[in-house]
Write a structure and sequence with these properties.
By secondary structure, the chain is α+β, with helices and mostly antiparallel strands. It has nine helices and 19 strands. A hairpin with a 2-residue loop joins strand 10 and strand 11. Its cofactor is Fe(2+).
């Protein structure tokens, strides 16, 4: 292939930076353009690539080596996800009629993917966009007192695993051996509480981290996403009736155990909304997201929607507490 000139990303307001592949040889162009794509990811936190014609999980798996070093293993999933081919999974199971709030994938874990690669195989009839929100801009826009408190005490995630809601503990930890779960949790700083109905866990994490390469400070957590206050009110009421206030599938707290009120969760959500960019999916699109720099979300939608995701370039939480290059 003749060496094409890497196009300047389209930076339209409200939409992610967009690159269009060379129509003559889109896959060759993607491999050639990988360095420039990485640079755009570092600068903007997310890049949409059009014209690649990604039509299957295998297509996505073939593209990943150009932009990623290795797959990331998923542990502690909050909802079921199906492995399709090595390194590529189905999208998280989530009701089509409900929005998925902005979050950084597995930001409650001690190791998480540094790169997310979303490929649209079938676009929905309406809605269903995958939004991207700059974690640095979100951090700068949040109330200063909230940021100071979150930086001081961190945040905590409380989970109650069951066979009826979300991922079971067997699915989340990839084993049906409670001893293996306990061993994993000890190394990950997770408290476990086994009881007749299942497993409850608690873990405390930092709410603000630094990008391991650039050193940029970002709001990096799931305080709002995995909060009981983001549930549909009727669903929350039903779950409290069934399992009790302490048995909800997930809930977030400040790291010192203090409750995080509905108004705080709403304020975080409003800031995410202000800084989220979206673009309607087209078949064959590839959206790359720097999972430390940017949060992602998903709109409610109608009609069939098939988006698959590659999880790659695992990052250790400790690498995000040391500062980075700048």
């Amino acid at each position: 292939m003749s060496a094409p000139t890497l196009p300047v990303p389209d930076l339209r307001d409200g939409r992610p930076p967009t690159l269009r592949a060379d129509a003559a040889d889109p896959r060759g162009w993607f491999a050639w353009a990988a360095h420039g794509i990485h640079a755009a990811l570092r600068e903007h936190g997310g890049v949409l690539v059009r014209g690649l014609g990604v039509a299957s999980p295998t297509d996505l798996a073939a593209l990943l080596p150009s932009v990623a070093t290795r797959p990331a293993e998923e542990r502690e999933a909050f909802a079921p996800r199906t492995p399709l081919v090595p390194g590529v999974h189905s999208a998280t199971v989530w009701p089509a009629a409900q929005q998925m709030c902005a979050h950084h994938e597995l930001s409650y874990a001690v190791e998480f993917p540094g790169l997310l690669a979303f490929a649209c195989l079938t676009p929905p009839e309406t809605g269903g966009t995958t939004g991207v929100a700059d974690g640095a801009a979100v951090l700068a826009d949040l109330p200063a007192d909230l940021v100071a408190r979150a930086e001081r005490v961190g945040w905590a995630l409380h989970r109650s695993y069951s066979a009826e809601i979300g991922a079971s503990w067997q699915q989340a930890f990839g084993t049906d051996d409670p001893a293996a779960v306990d061993a994993f949790c000890r190394t990950a700083g997770i408290e476990t509480d086994w009881h007749p109905e299942g497993l409850r866990t608690r873990q405390r994490r930092p709410a603000v981290v630094r990008h391991p390469v650039t050193g940029v400070r970002v709001w990096f957590n799931q305080i709002a996403f995995l909060s009981e206050w983001t549930m549909d009110p009727d669903v929350r009421e039903f779950l409290v009736d069934c399992y009790g206030a302490d048995g909800l599938p997930f809930a977030t707290r400040f790291g010192d155990g203090a409750e995080i009120g509905e108004e705080v969760v709403a304020a975080i959500g409003e800031v995410y909304t202000r800084h989220t960019v979206t673009e309607p999916w087209e078949a064959g699109d590839l959206l790359l997201v720097d999972n430390v720099r940017s949060a992602h979300s998903r709109e409610a939608y109608t009609g069939p929607r098939e988006v698959v995701v590659g999880l790659a370039d695992p990052v250790r939480l400790t690498d995000c507490l040391r500062g980075g290059a700048a």
